[in-house]
Amino acid sequence: SSPPSSQFKATFQESYQVYKRYQMVIHKDPPDKPTINQVRLVPVSFEDPQFKSSFNQSATLFAKYQMAIHKDTPSDCGENEFTRFLCDSPLEAENAPNGPECGYGSFHQQYWLDGKIIAVGVIDILPYCVSSVYLYYDPDYSFLSLGVYSALR
Q: Max Cα separation, the chain?
């Protein structure tokens, strides 16, 4: 999709309508609700204001997920473990002139609902692929199948 291929451009409106219908049927969103603000692609960098401002909420969600889904103890999923596992990346951010607008590197794709993060997809965007590293979500929203939704997205 970046740079947009002819197939991407030709199917964009149809794909968007499927996405919009999904949001309305599954999430009960009103027709005008699906917006870019529901999913935020945030570079994994403590120098990035969005990453810094959402770090505590994201780390807390990670701990909640790990304890509920994987039965980790609180000491297994504290901020240090979260940082080591999902924030320390060997990739260096790069903004190539012919690359995607967001650049290349490691990102947290945050899924927001009603002003709070309900899922985070940890992804690496590279010149020829996107790699899904990990996904964690609020177990209270497991009925939404956020892992499936994230994979499809």
A: 50
**Distance between alpha carbon 135 and the CA centroid of its chain, in Å?**
8
Report d(CA 153, CA 151) in Å as an integer.
Answer: 5
In the DSSP assignment, the letter for residue 139 is G
Q: Angle, to 10 degrees, between the axis of helix 79-86 and the axis of helix 49-69?
A: 110
Q: Which residues contact 127 (CB under 8 A, 6 or more apart)?
A: 96, 99, 104
- Domain 35-152 fold is Aminopeptidase (3.40.630)
Q: What does residue 92 show for φ and ψ, rounded to 5 degrees?
A: -100, 135
Q: What is the pLDDT of residues 100-147, one digit of tens each?
A: 888 899 999 999 988 899 999 999 999 988 899 999 999 999 888 888
Dihedral sign of CA atoms 15, 16, 22, 25 in order: negative
Closest CA to 120 of 130, 129, 133: 133
- Output the pTM of the full model: 0.74
Which tokens go with 126?
A: 């590279």
Q: How confident is the model at residue 24 (pLDDT cuts 50, 70, 90)?
A: confident
What's the pLDDT tens digit per position in 74-100?
999 999 999 999 999 888 888 888 888
